[in-house]
Structures are given as structure tokens and as C-alpha cells.
Specification:
By secondary structure, the chain is α+β, with helices and mostly antiparallel strands. 31% of the residues lie in helices and 16% in strands. Strands 2, 3, 7, 9, 10, 11, 12, 14 and 15 form a nine-stranded mixed sheet that branches. Helix 3 packs antiparallel against helix 6, helix 3 packs across helix 8 and helix 7 packs across helix 8. It is globular and about 65 Å long.
Length: 463
């Protein structure tokens, strides 16, 4: 059985809107008209509260995105498997294009109400879903285009901040090239030229993730899928819960039938189960494919109440892998999508920014609000211990290479941790389960002699 109940932090804080109460109707006698008047008063109160809430959300979630971030010119920076060295010719501009091209999904307001609710905004509670959507967006870009794709308007939109010297005594910032300056230079082309169909795919992905009831990966559908896991609009969501919501979303969507999601069990990735998805042998006959790509999600807990810093190196090595899709996690009660690192800081996209709903049904809908121009970072040690790692395997060959890389990192003799973050096991999960309940995985069996108590199958391993 898949684990769906995390014991770690649940992200966000519910901030619902009051339901309207219908007390009367025009064809009732005089008391009914008084009730209708009360209805109008309540409706006006609700509208006022909604406006005040929107204003508060704009203040609370509208300014933090513009804080300044400094980067080191000497240390390498890794962004979703790509390495940037800012001393090298052109790497600043290439990093700008790469970062801005990542899809940024944030709180929105004034979208169509979620089914059965009065919610027209997810401010205060939807950040974990937004982080999961950003990860899915990157996976879709990799799957339908490639990792070298970039948004053609990235440099026109860019408004990067500053980098600092590697010398601690230096306080003079080194400005990143402006778009005007960068266009005047001749730099090596690390990205292929754009073709029209790539921008169509870009827009299609944003439509699939839009805040509309018909969007297969939009907030409305994600919340609906969460109901089967005991969640509803306004609830708190954790990184393990959203991993299973993503799996359900890909299973039920017809938009990308050749892509599926695997969620690990018991901190173990079972190779035969992933290979079955890659082969498409788990599909119904009408959906059977010669092969599918797979998003591999691994929910873990890296410590008890706080993040255990011994896992810092492993996180850094994961983010160096070309197959890495990033990390769904955050700070306590504050979800973030981690996409890279420099030195001991994680680079992330922050969904805590309230923006107006965009109608993506229009052919020329604005793209700017779906891309972020302000890179942000935080110390790794401030990371919440509950998180979900994500990787992409295009086919069996790529999956084999990924497993080799993961095993190398997880079993590295230079790693500080006593136990690996998770394990790779041959065979299928059902081979390790019996009628009395879940049997111990390879990883857990190794630890059996040193653990006083083993968590249930619905909990994370405490590492």
C-alpha cells in the first residue's frame, strides 16, 4: 500500500471565505422580504470581507518576492542538473534565461469558485499544491521539449539582481548583465533556436495547469483528487499527499498519456514497478503504449523535528543530476519548490505571491506572470525535514542510468549520513508484502537491528 499520510509538516494555513446564507425569496410574504434584505446585507458583508481578504493577501503575499538575492561569482551554481560558473563567458546570461524559463505558479485570486465551495483564491493554503504543479510543469517541459528549452522572451523579461565577490571583505556587488547589455554581446549559443510549435507546447502546458475546472493539472482538479485522500479546499497539504495527487492526476488525464508517475513506498524505489510503468504494461488495453516516461517521486523525512544537516551533501548531489526534477518541500509551514543550489544555499521558486487569475482560454494570454525574474535562496539547514524528491526517466535505458547514479550517491563512502535518504531495490513492492502487513524493505531490513521501533506503513522513515 502506498504511504499517503505524512507525519511531518503540513504546509499553509487555511483562509476560507464565508458561505452565503439564503434566508428568503421574492415570492414570500412580508417576512420573506425582510429575509431577502438580510440576504443582501449578508451578501454585502461577504463581499466586503472578500475585498478586505484580497487586500490583505496582496499585502502579505505581494511584496516578499522582490527581496534582493546575492550570488557568488566563484562558486558553481547548479540549476536542475545544469552547472553555471559565473566567471565564464556567457554563463550569467545563460543562467538568466534558464531560471526565467522555469514555470512559476503562485497563489491566484478571482478564479472560478472551487466546486462546492466559495473559494475563489488559494491564498494561505494552496502553496504545497503550487509547488507540486511547478515540479510537474518542469517535467512536462522536459518530456515534451527538452532540458535545453528556454522561453524566447526570457531575456526581455529578465530583471536579475546582483552577485557578490568570493572575497568576504568585498562589499561591492557585481551586477548581472541587463537584457540590453546581454543582447549587445556575441555569446556562444547553448540553446537551440526556437520553433513555433515549441511555444504552442509552452502555452498548452500553462493551460493544463491553469485555475479552471477543466484544466487536467489545475488547482480545481488537484483539490478534487485530494478528496479521496481526505483533503479538501482550505486544508493543509504535505509533500507526501501531493505526490499521490500528482500520480492520480496523470492517471486520469488524457493530455499526456505517455507520461506516468511512480510514488515510492517505505522510502524504497522498486525497480520492477518503475520498469512496468516504463513498458506501459500496467495500462488498460485501450491505453496501452509501447513505452512511457515516468516521474519518480520519493517522499522522505530528513530528521525529526528539524532537518538533519548530515543529508546536505546528498541533496546537493541530487540537484546536480540531469534527471532531477527538483524537490517539493520548504520551510516549516511554508512550501517552496527547490530547483538548485550554490554553496550551502538552496535556490527555489516561491508560490507565496498573490496574482490575479489569467484566462488561458485566450490564444494570446499573457505569459509574464507564469515566469519569475527574482531568484531566491535559503540555507539548506533551514529546510523542513519533510520533502519529496523527484526524478525523470524517459525510458528503460535512462532509468538504468539514473539508478546507477542514485546508488552511487546513496552509498557513497564520503556521505556523512549513517543511513541513505532512500534505497533502490530490485523486484516489485508486492514481493516484500504479506498478509500480515507490509514486510520490511531492503533498506528497512538493514536497519532492523538498530531501530527500537519501526513506523507504520503510513508514516515516513525517521532518518
Amino acid at each position: 500500500m502506498n504511504s499517503i499520510s505524512p507525519v511531518g509538516t503540513q504546509y499553509g494555513s487555511p483562509r476560507g471565505q464565508r458561505r452565503q446564507v439564503v434566508l428568503g425569496s421574492p415570492d414570500r410574504p412580508k417576512m420573506g422580504y425582510q429575509g431577502a434584505g438580510q440576504d443582501a446585507e449578508i451578501d454585502e458583508v461577504d463581499k466586503l470581507k472578500s475585498k478586505l481578504l484580497t487586500a490583505w493577501n496582496n499585502v502579505k503575499y505581494g511584496w516578499t518576492v522582490k527581496m534582493k538575492t546575492n550570488f557568488n561569482r566563484v562558486s558553481p551554481l547548479y540549476l536542475l542538473g545544469k552547472r553555471y560558473q559565473f566567471r565564464l563567458e556567457g554563463d550569467i546570461e545563460h543562467f538568466q534565461k534558464d531560471f526565467v524559463s522555469r514555470v512559476w505558479l503562485t497563489y491566484r485570486r478571482d478564479f472560478p469558485a472551487l466546486e462546492g465551495t466559495q473559494f475563489t483564491t488559494d491564498c494561505g493554503w494552496g502553496c504545497m499544491i503550487r509547488s507540486a504543479q511547478m515540479l510537474l510543469a518542469h517535467a512536462l517541459l522536459m518530456h515534451l521539449l527538452n532540458r535545453d528549452w528556454f522561453w524566447p522572451e526570457a531575456l526581455n523579461f529578465v530583471e536579475m539582481e546582483s552577485m557578490r565577490s568570493s572575497s568576504p571583505s568585498s562589499s561591492n556587488p557585481y551586477p548581472i548583465l541587463s537584457s540590453t547589455a546581454s543582447r549587445s554581446r556575441t555569446l556562444p549559443n547553448r540553446h537551440p533556436p526556437q520553433v513555433p510549435h515549441q511555444e504552442l507546447i509552452h502555452r498548452d502546458i500553462l493551460r493544463w495547469l491553469s485555475d479552471h475546472p477543466d484544466a487536467p493539472f489545475g488547482l480545481h482538479h488537484m483539490v478534487k483528487l485530494g478528496e479521496s485522500l481526505g483533503k479538501k479546499a482550505g486544508d493543509w497539504y504535505g509533500p507526501s499527499i501531493v505526490a499521490h495527487i500528482l500520480r492520480k492526476a496523470l492517471e486520469t488525464a488524457s493530455a499526456v498519456p505517455e507520461l506516468s508517475v511512480y510514488v515510492s513506498q517505505d522510502c524504497t524505489v522498486y525497480r520492477a514497478d518503475v520498469e512496468q510503468l516504463l513498458d506501459g504494461s500496467d495500462c488498460a488495453p485501450e491505453r496501452s503504449l509501447a513505452g512511457r516516461a515516468v516521474i519518480i517521486l520519493v517522499p522522505v523525512r530528513l530528521g525529526g523535528e528539524h532537518f538533519n544537516p548530515v543529508y546536505k551533501q546528498c541533496i546537493q548531489e541530487f540537484l546536480q543530476m540531469p534527471a532531477c526534477l527538483g524537490i517539493i518541500g520548504g520551510k516549516p509551514k511554508h512550501s517552496l519548490y527547490f530547483i538548485g543550489y550554490q554553496d550551502n544555499d538552496l535556490l527555489y521558486l516561491d508560490p507565496h505571491y498573490c496574482q490575479t487569475y489569467i484566462d488561458t482560454s485566450k490564444d494570446d494570454f499573457a505569459l509574464e506572470t507564469f515566469h519569475c525574474k527574482f531568484p531566491r535562496k535559503m540555507p539548506i539547514v533551514k529546510m523542513d525535514p519533510s520533502c519529496t524528491f523527484a526524478f525523470y526517466a524517459k525510458n528503460r535505458e535512462h532509468f538504468g542510468t539514473l539508478c546507477d547514479q542514485l546508488v552511487k550517491v546513496l552509498s557513497s563512502t564520503s556521505a556523512e549520513e549513517k543511513y541513505p535518504v532512500f534505497s533502490i531495490s530490485d523486484g516489485q513492492a508486492q514481493e516484500f508484502f504479506n498478509a500480515d502487513g507490509p514486510a520490511l524493505s531492503t533498506f528497512a531490513r538493514r536497519k532492523r537491528g538498530t531501530m527500537a521501533k519501526r513506523p507504520s506503513s503510513d508514516e515516513f522513515e525517521f532518518l
